[in-house]
Amino acid sequence: MPITLTDAAAQRVSGYLAKQDGMLGLRLGVRKTGCSGFAYQIEYAKEITESDITFQDHGITLVVGEDALPLLQGMQVDFVKQGLNETFKFRNPNVKDECGCGESFTV
Questions:
Q1: Is there a domain that residue 106 lies in?
Q2: How far is CA 36 from CA 43, 70, 78, 89, 105, in A?
Q3: For residue 12, pLDDT beyond 90
Q4: Is residue 107 part of a domain?
Q5: Strand, helix or coil for residue 90
Q6: What order do you get walking across the sheet with 85-91 strand by strand?
Q7: Is residue 60 a contact partner of residue 14, using CB atoms and an 8 Å limit?
Q8: d(CA 105, CA 30)
Q9: Per DSSP, which regions of 1-107 are E strands?
Q10: pLDDT reported for residue 99
Q11: Three-state DSSP class for residue 94
């Protein structure tokens, strides 16, 4: 199953990518951390390597390292505004539990 973006996330990412030279897409990943084991990493992709898997959604290239793909497969990325706060939210069907602060998860 691919990784997808909501309309709100796609608008946010495409607006940023249009203003930046040399950015190829959105890179998604995980790192070991926190009280539950993993935390999401999100950044704009400057390059795509041979070990990266790419998906297309809303005309945006989503880049995921092959080692992170089993943890992120089927995930939907959303962009949410709540008052003055703006953030990306992750709806990941692989998550079994999250820590109380919402910063890390287990699969």
A1: no
A2: 22, 17, 22, 17, 5
A3: yes
A4: no
A5: strand
A6: 4-5, 76-82, 85-91
A7: yes
A8: 10
A9: 4-5, 25-33, 37-45, 52-57, 60-65, 76-82, 85-91, 97-98, 105-106
A10: 63
A11: coil
Q: Is the per-residue pLDDT at 80 higher than 70?
A: yes
The confidence band for 100, taking pLDDT boundaries of 50, 70 and 90, is low
pTM for the whole thing? 0.85
Closest of 61, 75, 68 to residue 4, by C-alpha: 75
pLDDT at residue 34, rounded to an integer: 61
The answer to the question of residue 15 being in a domain is: yes
Residue 81 included in any domain = yes
Please say if the pLDDT value at position 83 is more than 60. yes
Of 18, 68, 70, 64, residue with least CA distance to 43: 64
Return the amino acid letter for 79.
Answer: F
- Angle, vertex CA 94, rays to CA 7 and CA 4, nearest 5: 20
60 to 9, 39, 43: CA distances (angstroms): 10, 23, 13
- Locate 60 and state its tokens: 């945006």
